[in-house]
Amino acid sequence: MIALFSDINPMMLWLIAGALLILLEIILPGVYLFWIGIAALMVGGVLSVIDLSVTLQILLFAIFALLAVIVGVKTYKGKEIKSTQLNQIRGSEFIGRVMTIDKAVVNGQGRIALGDSTWFIEGEDLPAGSQIKIKAVRGNTLLYEVIQRA
């Protein structure tokens, strides 16, 4: 096995290893393989300028990998990916919709049938037959404003 790699330029080995790690990151996302792949590419870049022993190559890779992972962690730390698309928020399809409630809202709480499910609604007290407009969603509760009282 070692004989297989003995004929390949070390710079090419590092560049291939870096490219494979980045490719693996695309297939198995987890963020860290990308930065380690960048470190391998950096070692390949250094080897294109100067020749280093295998020991120094490994040491340089370890340093670059550590620095690259630190940069990666600082770059993505605290950045939560949230969907800005309304269709990704359950109930958001009802926002702006005007509807008539069939049961009274008492103590600011009520229920309304929409499609094949029942939703909690929250707002001011209303008699059955009043018209409301959905203005927001909070968890499994639709918040409304009054359009017309019955």
TrEMBL record:
GO cellular component: plasma membrane
Protein name, entry field: NfeD-like C-terminal domain-containing protein
Organism: Ignatzschineria cameli
Residue intervals of the NfeD-like C-terminal domain: 93-142
TM segment ranges: 12-42, 54-73
Membrane topology summary: Multi-pass membrane protein
UniProt cross-references to PANTHER family, sorted A to Z: INNER MEMBRANE PROTEIN YBBJ
Top-level lineage group: Bacteria
